[in-house]
Design a protein that fits this description.
This protein is of the alpha/beta class. Helix content is 45%, strand content 15%. The two termini are 38 Å apart.
Length: 425
């Protein structure tokens, strides 16, 4: 076989067979196929797509390109959750201990943020001492001991994805659905869980901008999971505004703690409870929303979270400390009405400029900076009400504050907000 022939075949809209895809991925991982040829292949896939069969072959070829995690020594049905990314998404910090509080083991490997999207590992590393690097043996042992673990992905897991994603990031081929689906599902399958909940975000702050695209991606990933015997459900969720109140690593940890103390906004609290209900159902437990909310707000989930933090080296005193940002700027409303828009992308990029996110993977993160919103879309507001606080380590210019306010849209009519748009099973 020759890579150029496979590139041409895909360029012309023909389907590759299993052997061809496996040969291509194996060659790319071992270095016999160079970046420029794999770039050409990725662009061909971007324009011509892949059949369901091709995407399945690609996913499994990526799974076997590295080591896989064996969770069979952990008793019970093991579950995992993945989000396609967004702004202010601290769901993992809350959902993992909540599920574990029902005796369902959660073995979770998470990622870092890039651009306007936040990463779970970055939020956890905002806690002094928290160690995200664990060997497979330590990972499994922790889940056996505590019922939960959230760690970074091993470099040995799905080697092809690490190489291919870096290439896609610089060749404008990130948002090709077969490549997104195979990237996500190869990692989830290799991570070894029995059940997978996929949170597919859609809207201004997400990679998927339309419901149609989100549905196509969701259906592709659910089918991939089922093909290998993993119970998989996708939830399409709104990312037109930031999720919850906080954007920024330390600030999102503090919001997660508030939610697990029963002090969070009702909308994100209810949203997380609905996700938990779906994941528990996948694991064979039928629980009412009232029962789940009790676990979330009465300290049972929080106790699990604290135990995980301590087990992974985190400092409990540091966990609860407020942000050390030097400047906290209050933003007040200029008019009466209802919040109509808080564009997630604009505020994600704004937080990134404060230091809360990375433009490239090597950028330094400022864990203390970010934004806390006191009003969200649909909320009534009066002139002079506190709208938000901006946490920064440099004084903000008037131009920046004007830019912030311009992105807040207020209308005379009340808006209705729905977090979960569709469930794909």
């Amino acid at each position: 076989m020759r890579a150029v022939d496979l590139i041409q075949k895909k360029r012309d809209g023909q389907a590759l067979n299993k052997d061809e895809i496996e040969w291509l991925i194996k060659g790319y991982v071992n270095g016999s196929i160079p970046d420029y040829q794999m770039s050409a292949f990725a662009m061909a896939v971007y324009f011509k797509g892949m059949t369901a069969e091709e995407t399945s072959h690609l996913t499994m070829a990526m799974v076997v390109s590295g080591k896989t995690v064996d969770l069979t020594s952990i008793s019970g049905v093991k579950v995992d959750k993945h989000s396609t990314g967004g702004v202010g998404d601290k769901v993992t910090l809350i959902l993992v201990p909540l599920i574990a509080s029902f005796g369902v083991p959660v073995a979770k490997m998470s990622g870092r943020g890039l651009g306007h999207t936040g990463g779970t590992l970055d939020k956890l590393e905002a806690i002094k001492g928290y160690q995200i690097e664990r060997s497979q043996e330590e990972f499994v042992q922790q889940v056996q001991d505590l019922g939960l673990a959230v760690i970074g992905q091993s470099d040995q897991l799905v080697k092809a994805d690490k190489l291919l994603y870096a290439l896609r990031d610089v060749t404008a081929t990130v948002d090709a659905i077969p490549l997104i689906a195979s990237s996500i599902m190869s990692k989830k399958i290799a991570a070894g869980a029995d059940c997978i909940l996929l949170d597919v975000t859609v809207g201004d702050g997400a990679f998927m901008k339309t419901l149609k695209e989100a549905e196509e991606l969701s259906q592709t990933m659910v089918s991939l999971g089922k093909e290998v015997g993993r119970h998989t459900v996708a939830v399409i969720t709104d990312m037109s505004q930031p999720l919850g109140q906080a954007i920024g690593n330390r600030l999102e940890v503090l919001e997660a703690l508030q939610i697990m103390q029963g002090k969070g906004r009702h909308d994100i609290t209810d949203f997380i409870c609905r996700l938990a209900q779906l994941l528990l159902k996948l694991a064979g437990q039928k629980r009412s929303l009232a029962e789940i909310k009790k676990h979330l707000t009465d300290g049972q989930a929080l106790q699990k979270f604290e135990k995980m933090v301590v087990y992974q080296g985190g400092d409990l005193k540091d966990l609860y400390r407020p942000s050390k940002a030097k400047f906290v700027t209050k933003i007040f409303a200029d008019e009466d009405g209802y919040i109509k828009e808080l564009p997630a992308l604009a505020f994600g990029l704004f937080a990134m400029r404060l230091g809360a996110g990375r433009a490239v993977k090597t950028d330094f993160l400022d864990y203390e900076t970010g934004i806390v919103f006191y009003k969200k879309v649909g909320d009534p507001i009066q002139k002079g009400d506190l709208l938000a606080e901006i946490y920064a380590n440099e004084k903000l210019s008037e131009n920046l504050l004007t830019e912030f306010k311009k992105n807040v849209k207020i209308d005379k009519e009340e808006m209705k907000v729905t977090e979960i748009l569709k469930i794909i099973t």
